[in-house]
Write a structure and sequence with these properties.
By secondary structure, the protein is α/β, with parallel strands linked by helices. The chain has one domain (33-378): 3-Layer(aba) Sandwich (Aspartate Aminotransferase, domain 2), CATH 3.40.640.10. 34% of the residues lie in helices and 16% in strands. Strands 4-12-11-10-7-5-6 form a seven-stranded mixed beta sheet, with helices on both faces. Strand 5, helix 6 and strand 6 form a beta-alpha-beta unit. The longest helix has 14 residues, at 65-78. The chain is globular.
């Protein structure tokens, strides 16, 4: 037997069926379900009508006629695909206007529009810090922040959730010249809101930049929560850190695929920070730009639907255990998993378990939205 006739060694590809079977045995095999709109908070899930408690459509805007009309008009005016990366031929007048409107809406000098929230964070973090720099990450941060931190090759300091004392100790002991603190603004697993003013004070004390992921606060927080006039301008507005009070040490990121009901994400901050990201973020530079109709109407929808925001906070307050506090519960659009049961007389309710890893810990929340009411369980 020579080298040409000898049997080939087993390929690692042959191991995949066994590894998939192991995931199934450990109850870790993921499965997709086919869904279709069912009206309001209802979804058709694999053909069965269910009341959804796992949707990110917090204000019920994904099917809003105004958004559908805006997207349709944009498709007719601009076409569907963008035709190139933003730095070649893909930065349309529609997306330029969207960036202007988003910056104005969140009260920051400039914004940069991305095609997805995950791509935003895994791209901007390596653009800000690298080998020899220091990154400080809350233990319950979302997977995209965790992966962005790993890709950056900076030294990662993972501090216990919301433990400002531990964070300060880590900042004080770090010899790195460039320091970046990254945190979710609203932690969807537990429903608590980060203490942004205290985090900013630490960043000012130790010359660090603060990156805030407001995926679950944009469109929901930003004013007198649960009161008339609530416009959902985000967690920075909630803390009064926008406009004249905006800090050049804060970089604000938010998604448009949740409360805004459309698609994509954006990052906002000082002109120089955003310009740096435009020049250095690989997931922005080397990717086809977001489709032109994708984000149409995004900036104005939360402000134009204050009644839906009010309904969302009322729904969260009705379902939220008092010990958690209605403000924190409404901020995460969440209730404890045992607080709502058998929600709808004509259908079951649908909960999707979120496992550890994606958000740093197991889910203890159950999202509610503006379309849920007290009739959906208490």
């Amino acid at each position: 037997m020579n080298a040409l006739t000898a049997p080939l060694p087993a390929s690692w590809l042959d191991e995949l069926p066994t590894r998939l079977a192991a995931l199934k045995d450990e109850h870790l095999l993921r499965a997709r379900r086919t869904v279709a709109p069912g009206g309001g908070a209802m979804l058709q899930v694999d053909g069965q009508p269910l009341l959804a408690f796992c949707s990110n459509d917090y204000l019920g805007l994904a099917g809003h006629p105004a958004l559908a009309a805006a997207a349709s008009e944009a498709a007719h005016a601009y076409g569907l695909g963008s035709g190139g990366s933003p730095l070649v031929s893909g930065h349309s007048t529609a997306n330029a206007l969207l960036e202007h409107d988003l910056a104005r809406f969140v009260g920051l000098p400039r914004a940069l529009y991305f095609y997805a929230g995950y791509a935003t964070n895994v791209g901007i973090i390596p653009a800000l810090v690298g080998a020899g720099d220091a990154l400080f990450s809350d233990a319950l941060n979302h997977a995209c922040l965790i992966d962005g931190a790993r890709l950056s090759r900076a030294t990662i300091h993972r501090y216990p959730h919301a433990d400002l004392g531990a964070l300060e100790s880590a900042l004080a002991s770090s010899p790195a010249r460039r320091k970046l603190v990254v945190t979710d603004a609203v932690f969807s697993m537990d429903g608590d809101v980060a203490d942004i003013p205290a985090l900013l004070a630490l960043c000012e004390r130790y010359d660090a930049l603060l990156l805030i992921d407001d995926a679950h606060g944009f469109g929901v927080l930003g004013g007198n929560e649960g009161q008339q006039g609530q416009e959902g301008r985000g967690t920075l507005a909630h803390h009064g850190l926008t406009g004249a009070n905006a800090s050049p040490r804060i970089l604000y990121m938010a998604t448009l695929g949740k409360a805004a009901g459309v698609a994509g994400a954006f990052v906002a901050g000082s002109d120089v920070l955003v310009e740096w990201l435009l020049q250095k973020t690989r997931t922005y530079i080397f990717a086809t730009a977001a489709p032109r109709p994708a984000g149409q109407g995004a900036a104005g929808q939360p402000a134009g639907n204050a009644d839906r925001n009010l309904a969302l906070h009322a729904s969260a307050a009705a379902h939220c255990p008092p010990a958690r506090g209605p403000g924190a519960c409404a901020a995460a659009h969440a209730v404890a998993a045992d607080a709502v049961h058998n929600a709808h007389p004509a259908a079951g309710d649908w909960q999707q378990c979120r496992r550890p890893g994606g958000h740093g810990g197991p889910s203890r929340t159950r999202p509610v939205g503006a379309c849920h009411s007290s009739a959906h369980g208490a």
